[in-house]
Amino acid sequence: MAALDGLPPLRDVIQRHGLDARKALGQNFLLDLNLTQKVARTAGSLEGVTVFEVGPGPGGLTRAILALGAEKVIAVERDSRCLPALAEISDHYPGRLEVIEGDALKTDFEALADGRPVKIIANLPYNVGTQLLVNWLLPKQWPPFWQSLTLMFQKEVGERIVAAEDDDHYGRLGVLCGWRTSAHMAFDISPQAFTPPPKVTSTVVHLTPNENPLPCSIDKLEKVTHAAFGQRRKMLRQSLKPLGGEALLGKAEIDPQRRAETLSVAEFVRLANCL
Ligand code: SAM
Fold first, then answer.
1. Domain of 52, in residue numbers
2. How many domains does the chain have?
3. Low-confidence ranges of the chain (pLDDT < 70)
4. What residues does ligand 1 touch, defined as CB less than 6 Å away?
């Protein structure tokens, strides 16, 4: 893709700007521009879309998103060392890349969207990735401000996101994602594709909002999943005792001898609605 967008190879960019990767910032850079294009393509058409990217780093994924025709990219990056490299991309695509220096966890993405069609695409820093995803899943208003999330995680986190009942990876994250979204793992990326290579395989997860999730209070759903999966090997009559135990389960018509990991998302919603 260096030839496609005319910008220099990422290795040169990293060297020129002294962007040695910092572990504390979850910096594992993806330098293969074919792979960054594959990630960006997973989000579908970007024509007329504003893309929010978290952690552009030296800009490999940013370049792919712009080359694939996103109307605008708004990228939030915590590491100020990356800003000069990103400014070169911004100069190459005038008016189409805005970089915000800051912490994505403290960024109000909904306000930034300002009613525009938005897709979120990111190779997330491992230490804040799950929290960012949860934040994007919790808005009171649903469907949310984003059309899709295309996110790279450690594979184990990806498995928890897409897990359904009777799967070892099923837990609070799987219930939340299953309730409000349709999620699938698009493809894996081996550690060797990154600089420096992380210890584990990564995976790209694509999520789209369910238009009409079963009506339910988020707080109550969180309460029942927290209690149920807090003691996942115990029967629900035991793990849900603080929330009403057998009486609650009776009201929701769920066998008190079952365990958390056997309940479907719809059954968790029923429990929450009976709280
Ligand atoms: N997008 C680049 C790529 O694919 O090569 C870099 C991805 S690297 C896994 C994660 C990036 O997130 C780093 O550039 C890091 O500085 C940035 N980052 C870490 N914590 C952040 C935070 N709280 N808010 C915004 N960016 C953050």
1. 2-209
2. 2
3. 1-4
4. 25-30, 54-57, 60-61, 76-79, 82, 103-105, 123, 125, 128
